[in-house]
């Protein structure tokens, strides 16, 4: 493999001196009897987690995995997943968590692209790899089932020593490889090193992750959204509670039963939680900190969370690749709920036009970010890494986000849309997000997406897709007329269509590519 393009992020105010692997080892010695992991009825203390992490590391090493090799996991959230994640790191290898939303073809491409030396698979997702995995030249381990071509996970652990292999790990060593695409096309592997993850730990104390935190995560561990709550909690010596699958009612029960203090959620989860009919019946007084990321959280949902859900609400805007990060402390900025906050310390964001020039203050441009936490690059793809980079006049590296936005007069970032989701109709730029917000103001609309569809007159034109509340009696034409009465002439929707539900990723993002496909595939070329 060719060497990676060197990405040199700016140094944080306090440079990390300790890897996550080192800190977790220390935590197990310091508080061996404290709970570290909880998932359903399973509970592990720090001492138990440490021993099982050592066993995983030794299993991986006995497979012939060397420092820096990629080791894949395909599983729902579980105790086994968590200890595999940590054990692979302790062996000096790179964790490659695979998306359970990916197609078999995409997973095949991910495993080939990563040159994974081993894969750990849970029964729930075995069918996704069954057709090809036995033909690959890699070690195979079944987490919770039996198969003649797979080693048994618990047997392998029982046979491995519980002693720490003490593999030396440098900040520049690979930490994890996260694939950004899982449905079609060639996936891109986002490579993070130990420096990047250690630099993220600056938020541990300010966010109270080191104060006997009990963090509930309900998004999958292959998602960066989950990892940025999972790792700080463990780094702080606290306890992670995992849900294998999100259910709003069960989520509230866990908060009440376990006195949860911290959580990371994506916007669609907040909406489902706040819509639970007996929400007010749950005792949520233990909650201290609630975080949101992965997509913008609607202002009206933020306001509802602030009014009824105890604890602070903090929204992060950033990318899995890293770069510029903004933070909105919603409780302190009730008039800025339509934004994603201000720059995090040590971060910088520039807004550029299609020619790569910075736009004037207040105008919309593509968001390019730079900060202490930046990926090492796309794995083995210097070409893609180079395309992702924008440089300022001093030659500093910024990452192009593909998101469009503007800064208001107070320095709060207002998102407009994904660049690829922007609709160009009659030569005018239309931001789908603006139209979606208008549709969502309709009392009968529960969910909405706006996409560009082919138009002979305009090239493309905006189409609204909506899911309606139960009991709604108005037609989609009524909704269209109400929306267009609010929208500007150049923004008006060509039509509104009803959908029973929107296709979403596991972390709640609407899959607009799937929504657009039928319209564009039917267009003659």
Write the topology of this structure.
Blueprint: H1 20-30, E1 35-39, E2 42-45, H2 46-62, E3 70-74, H3 79-90, E4 94-97, H4 104-114, E5 118-121, H5 126-129, E6 139-142, E7 151-152, H6 153-159, E8 174-179, E9 189-193, H7 194-199, E10 214-217, H8 224-235, E11 239-242, H9 248-258, E12 262-265, H10 267-274, E13 289-292, H11 299-308, E14 312-317, E15 326-329, E16 342-343, E17 348-352, E18 365-370, E19 377-378, H12 382-388, E20 389-391, E21 397-407, E22 413-418, E23 423-425, E24 428-430, H13 432-440, E25 445-455, E26 459-468, H14 476-486, E27 495-498, H15 512-521
Parallel strand pairs: 1-11, 3-4, 3-5, 5-6, 6-7, 10-11, 10-12, 12-13, 13-14, 26-27
Antiparallel strand pairs: 1-2, 8-9, 9-19, 14-15, 15-16, 17-18, 18-21, 20-21, 21-22, 23-24, 25-26
Helix pairs in contact: 1-2, 2-3, 2-6, 10-11
Largest sheet: 9 strands, mixed
- Percent of residues in helices: 25-40%
The helix-and-strand class reads: alpha/beta
Beginning-to-end CA distance, first to last residue: 38 Å
Form type: globular
Radius of gyration of CA atoms, rounded to a whole number: 23 Å
Low-pLDDT ranges = none
- Second CATH tier, the architecture of the largest domain: 3-Layer(aba) Sandwich
CATH domain class of the largest domain: Alpha Beta
The number of helical runs is 15
Classify the beta-strand content into a percent band.
Answer: 15-25%
How many structural units, i.e. domains? 3
In CATH, the homologous superfamily of the largest domain goes by the name: ANL, N-terminal domain
Query: Using DSSP, what is the number of strands?
Result: 27
């Amino acid at each position: 493999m060719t060497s990676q393009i060197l990405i040199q992020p700016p140094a944080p105010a306090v440079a990390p001196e300790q890897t996550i692997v080192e800190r977790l080892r220390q935590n197990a010695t310091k508080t061996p009897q404290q709970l570290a992991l909880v998932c359903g009825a399973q509970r592990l203390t720090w001492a138990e987690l440490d021993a099982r992490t050592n066993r995983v590391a030794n299993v991986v090493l006995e497979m012939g995995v060397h420092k820096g090799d990629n080791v894949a996991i395909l599983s729902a959230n579980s105790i086994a997943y968590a200890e595999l994640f940590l054990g692979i790191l302790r062996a000096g290898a790179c964790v490659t968590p695979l998306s359970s939303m990916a197609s078999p073809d995409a997973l095949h491409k991910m495993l080939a692209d990563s040159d994974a030396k081993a894969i750990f698979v849970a029964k729930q997702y075995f069918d996704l790899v069954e057709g090809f995995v036995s033909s690959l030249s890699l070690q195979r381990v079944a987490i919770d089932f039996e198969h003649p071509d797979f080693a048994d996970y618990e047997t392998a652990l029982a046979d491995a020593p519980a002693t720490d292999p003490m593999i030396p790990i440098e900040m520049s060593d690979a930490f994890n490889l996260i694939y950004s695409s899982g449905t079609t096309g060639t996936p891109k592997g986002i490579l993070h090193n130990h420096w990047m993850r250690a630099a993220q730990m600056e938020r541990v104390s300010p966010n109270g992750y080191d104060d006997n935190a009990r963090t509930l995560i309900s998004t999958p561990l292959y998602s960066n959204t989950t990892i940025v709550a999972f790792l700080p909690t463990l780094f702080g010596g606290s306890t992670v509670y995992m849900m294998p699958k999100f259910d709003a009612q069960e989520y509230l029960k866990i908060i009440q039963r376990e006195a949860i203090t911290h959580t990371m959620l994506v916007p669609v989860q907040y909406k489902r939680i706040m819509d639970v009919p007996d929400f007010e019946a749950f005792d949520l007084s233990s909650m201290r900190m609630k975080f949101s990321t992965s997509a913008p959280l609607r202002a009206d949902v933020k306001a509802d969370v602030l009014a009824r859900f105890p604890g602070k609400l903090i929204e992060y805007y950033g990318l899995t690749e890293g770069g510029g990060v903004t933070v909105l402390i919603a409780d302190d900025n009730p008039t800025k709920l339509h934004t994603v906050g201000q720059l995090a310390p040590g971060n910088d964001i520039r807004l550029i036009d299609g020619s790569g020039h910075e736009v004037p203050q207040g105008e919309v441009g593509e968001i390019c970010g730079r900060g202490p936490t930046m990926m090492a690059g796309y794995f083995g793809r210097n070409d893609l890494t180079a395309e992702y980079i924008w440089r300022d006049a001093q030659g500093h590296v910024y990452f192009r986000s593909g998101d469009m936005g503007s800064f208001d007069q107070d320095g709060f970032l207002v998102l407009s849309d994904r660049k690829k989701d922007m609709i160009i109709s009659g030569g005018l730029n239309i931001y789908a997000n603006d139209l979606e917000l208008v549709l969502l103001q309709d009392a009968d609309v529960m969910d909405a997406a706006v996409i560009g569809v082919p138009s002979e007159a305009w090239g493309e034109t905006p189409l609204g897709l909506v899911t309606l509340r139960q009991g709604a009696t108005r037609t989609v034409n009524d909704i269209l007329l109400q929306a267009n009465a609010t929208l500007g002439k150049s923004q008006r929707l060509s039509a509104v269509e009803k959908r029973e539900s929107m296709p979403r990723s596991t972390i709640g993002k609407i899959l607009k590519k799937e929504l657009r496909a039928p319209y564009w595939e039917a267009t003659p070329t």
